[in-house]
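Researcher: Here's my situation. A collaborator sent me these components and asked whether they could plausibly form a single complex. I don't have experimental data yet, so a predicted model of the whole assembly would be a useful starting point for our discussion.
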Amino acid sequence: SQTIHQWPATLVQPVGSPLSLECTVEGTSNPNLYWYRQAAGRGLQLLFYSVGIGQISSEVPQNLSASRPQDRQFILSSKKLLLSDSGFYLCAWSSKSRVDTIYFGEGSWLTVV
Amino acid sequence: AQKVTQAQTEISVVEKEDVTLDCVYETRDTTYYLFWYKQPPSGELVFLIRRNSFDEQNEISGRYSWNFQKSTSSFNFTITASQVVDSAVYFCALSEAGAGSYQLTFGKGTKLSVIP
């Protein structure tokens, strides 16, 4: 069966510091991968999605970036965090045959102080 | 543009009561998919159900049931005989079919608290 993992689960970072959240999917190949953010008291917002290695689409302009160095690895990064980057970040995947059904990872809580 | 509205921000019920979570959506497409996800306090999003726009048959899964009404653009979720473990935030979401439609549009969620 397919599984998705992301880490770290929680982190507290100072303003201006870099960020790296990592996500991997197991049990499937060539998945679509996504990064979502859930800010406090708000719904989920799609940040990036990827249909293949090195292919990244951004949905929201921001100081975050994403990369897909391997087929089942998706990384969310920032060179300099802002206070507004605080939130709950979720990695997700879907298969090419069922792009409409998305499965989520455990999430990462980011607090920028 | 597609939109999902969950008007109920928070609901509290006593254990064993039935509860319905409302979801109203907007889309211009005739082909689309509707979803419900559960987000327990631990944070992960758990997929509950997926319905396509051509299938209005209501679905029941144990204590969960879903009522899809295209005429009112609603996709409501009912939990029968609620339990404390049902306490979570529930999200309704919409995905439109077609090229490039890789994203879900989520409602803002309804926080359900089941009181023992």
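Model: Some features of this prediction you could bring to your collaborator: Chain A touches chain B at residues 32, 34, 42-44, 46, 49, 51, 57, 59, 88, 90, 92, 94, 99-107, 109 (CB under 8 Å). The first strand of chain A starts at residue 3 and ends at 7.
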